[in-house]
Design brief:
34% of the residues lie in helices and 26% in strands. It is of the alpha/beta class. It has a six-stranded mixed sheet, with helices on both faces. A four-stranded antiparallel sheet has the order 2-1-4-5, covered by helices on one side. It starts with 13 loop residues before the first strand and ends with a helix.
C-alpha cells in the first residue's frame, strides 16, 4: 500500500476487532474498554486522543501484548497477537533507560536477549543511533543526556528490533515546548525514513493534527471510540493555517462531548 509519505509495504497492518477489557475492582468487573474496532494500514501514523481514564494506554498495552486477557481480537498482518514480540516496539513518556548502561548498550539490550549475532547487533545499533541523530553519544550514559536526547535513545531502542509497529505512549509529554516541537519533527523524519506504522497516544490535540494521517477520539467510562478523523492536510503542516485550526477545533469539540 502506498501512503502519503511514499512508503510501500505490506507489513504493519493492524486490525482491532470488537475489543473489550475489564478489570476486577473490589470484587466487581470495571469495564475500561468497550467494543473497540479499528483498522490501521501499513505505514500509517495514527494518534489516539481522549480524556484521562478513557483507556488509551490500556489499548496500547493490548496491542503490544503485555495483557492478553480481553474480549475480541487484535490481529497484526492477519495473525492474532498472543503476547509481546519483536514485531512491536513501544516508547513510554519516561525513557526508562538503564542508568548503568551506555546509550549503545541500552539500545542493544533486546538484541542480546534475542541472541542476534554481535556484528548484526553493531550494525543495527549504529544504524538506529544515526537515525535518531545521536551520533557521537554512543558511549554516553543516560544522566549525560538531555530529556529530548534520552527520548531519542528510547526510540532507537524500540526501533532496533525492526518492528512493524511503533507504539508511542505520550512520548513527548514530559518535555518542554521547544524540545517537544523539535522532536515532533524528528518523529516525522524517523517515520518517513523507516516506513514503520506508528500509533501514538497523546493529550495534545495540536500534536495529533500535526503528526497524523488520522486522529482517533476516545471517550471514557467505558473507553470507546467516538470519532475517527482523517487529517487531509499537506506536509509540512502549518499550525496557523485555517484548515489546521478548524480540524483542531473539530477534535476538541468531539472531546468535549
Amino acid at each position: 500500500m502506498s501512503l502519503s509519505h511514499g512508503v510501500i509495504d505490506d507489513q504493519g497492518a493492524l486490525a482491532i476487532r470488537a475489543v473489550s477489557k475489564s478489570y476486577q475492582v473490589d470484587g466487581r468487573a470495571l469495564q475500561v474498554l468497550k467494543g473497540i474496532a479499528l483498522d490501521i494500514a501499513p505505514g500509517e501514523f495514527v494518534s489516539v486522543v481522549g480524556a484521562s481514564g478513557c483507556g488509551k494506554s490500556t489499548l496500547l498495552r493490548l496491542i503490544v501484548g503485555l495483557d492478553t486477557a480481553y474480549d475480541g481480537a487484535i490481529l497484526l498482518d492477519g495473525r492474532r497477537i498472543e503476547g509481546p514480540g519483536p514485531d512491536r516496539g513501544i516508547v513510554f513518556q519516561d525513557h526508562r533507560l538503564f542508568p548503568w548502561l551506555t546509550v549503545a548498550d541500552n539500545i542493544s539490550l533486546g538484541l542480546e536477549a534475542a541472541n542476534v549475532p554481535i556484528p548484526e547487533q553493531q550494525r543495527r545499533v549504529a544504524e538506529n543511533i544515526a537515525l535518531v541523530g545521536l551520533d557521537g553519544f554512543e558511549n554516553a550514559y543516560p544522566h549525560q543526556l538531555s530529556g529530548g536526547m534520552a527520548q531519542r535513545a528510547a526510540i532507537a531502542r524500540a526501533l532496533v528490533g525492526e518492528p512493524e509497529i511503533l507504539l508511542l505512549d505520550e512520548p513527548l509529554g514530559a518535555l518542554d515546548s521547544l524540545t517537544r516541537a523539535y522532536l515532533q519533527e524528528e518523529l516525522l523524519r524517523i517515520w518517513r525514513q523507516g516506513g514503520v506504522t506508528m500509533i501514538m497516544v497523546t493529550h495534545d490535540v495540536e500534536e495529533a493534527v500535526y503528526l497524523s494521517d488520522r486522529v482517533v477520539v476516545m471517550e471514557p467510562r467505558p473507553g470507546r471510540i467516538s470519532a475517527v478523523l482523517p487529517v487531509d492536510l499537506p506536509r509540512p503542516r502549518d499550525r496557523a493555517a485555517a484548515e489546521f485550526i478548524r480540524l483542531k477545533e473539530r477534535i476538541l469539540r468531539a472531546l468535549s462531548r
